[in-house]
Amino acid sequence: MSQVKGQFVRSGVGAGGAYSEMYLEGAKAEEVAEMFTAAPFDRFFGTASTRDRQVHAGGQTAKENPMGAVTGHMDLMETTIRETGRDARGVDIGSSFSGFLNGGARLRIEQEADGVRVTEQGTRVRPDFTKVPVAGAVQAAFEANVPVAGAMARAMREAGEGVMGTVFEGVHALMAARSPERMAQSIQQRRKTGRW
User: Going edge to edge, which strands form the sheet with 115-127?
Assistant: First the structure.
């Protein structure tokens, strides 16, 4: 089989959330789909760290920190990645996550003549500040029990979560730019050893 080469095409954040596009020359759609649904997260998103990862029919679930390889692991969310559909041209992958970070993403893995195009679209990230230890519980209690000021505190928290969500989406798009070469290496390893 040919050597796999990863190429970054584009990424950013728009009105619909984060998006990215990459090309894996020499890859097959089936093996790229398997990477997302069965390989450890750091094999396709190099900055991620996971704990309690479980592979199940059609996908996998793990407690994740998307920047854990850089910052040290602390669970920020529980992520499920699964196949959501397929057709003659490729495979659709969906992910959802909840915890301190909440949201999801959609990937389209499409076979082309000499490789695979991976397109991510609509990635949304929203933090939940009430999940911050101690301070989050105080915030939630204040919002629930203090008339008027509690409602104002909730509105301010939600506005802050919205702003920080856009920041997290931007970081995600930036890190996606570093992923194609990592993916190519992972696919090569799988071909050589039979293991992710």
Answer: 5-14, 17-25, 115-127, 101-112, 90-99, 77-86, 59-65, 49-56
The distance from CA 66 to its chain's CA centroid, rounded to whole angstroms, is 7
Give 149's pLDDT tier (boundaries 50, 70, 90). very high
HSE-CB of 141 using CA atoms within 13 angstroms: 5
Task: Let me know: does 108 contact 51? Beta carbons within 8 Å.
Answer: no
Q: 55 φ, ψ to 5°? A: -95, 130
Q: Which of 53, 49, 93 is nearest to 75 (CA)?
A: 49
Q: Is 187 helix (H, G, I), strand (E, B) or coil?
A: helix
Q: Residues 145-166, buried b or exposed e (16+ Cβ, 10 A)?
A: eeeeebeeebeebeeebeeebe
Axis crossing angle, helix 29-38 with helix 179-193, rounded to the nearest 10: 100
Supply the pTM of this predicted model: 0.88
Q: Is 35:191 a contact under the CB 8 Å cutoff?
A: no
Tokens 């389209």, residue? 108
- For the ranges 15-24, 65-74, 108-117, the lowest mean pLDDT is seen at 65-74
Backbone angles phi, psi at 173, to 5 degrees: -60, -40
